[in-house]
Amino acid sequence: MRLYRYSPYRPAFDLFDNLFAPQGAGPDAPAYNVERKDDDNFRVVLAVPGFGQDEIDITQTENVLTVTGKAKEQADAAAYVYRGLAAGSFEHRFELGDNVKVAGADLTNGLLKIDLIRVVPEEQKPRKIAIGTPAIETRLTA
Length: 142
Description:
The chain has 142 residues and is mostly beta strands. It has strands at residues 18-20, 32-36, 41-47, 56-61, 64-69, 90-95, 100-108, 111-118. The protein has one domain (10-119): Immunoglobulin-like (Sandwich), CATH 2.60.40.
């Protein structure tokens, strides 16, 4: 599904301009969900079973959130008869909308939860204009 900027549903997705996995992400890239808590708070949840906090790096550079996982070498790799869990390194990139910041992250039971918040500056917030307020006239002078 493609989201267009002038869609009536655009405000619900204004936090993310685009969500994408990098080219060549492959089968080892973890699955993820994007949850909406309210108008200004979202959460990205990545399934990262087997990864510890020291193996995951989260960085935000301007409007790009990057989650990188580097798995440690396992000495007993030959002991597997079947290996269905992805255990390789991965990188996910999420392009965020303007004014979106990472509020925090938590790793519990194999789920990496990254909380995002939209911080709108005062000058960009809507303001109410009272009716009956005299208009300011601007005159061009030569």
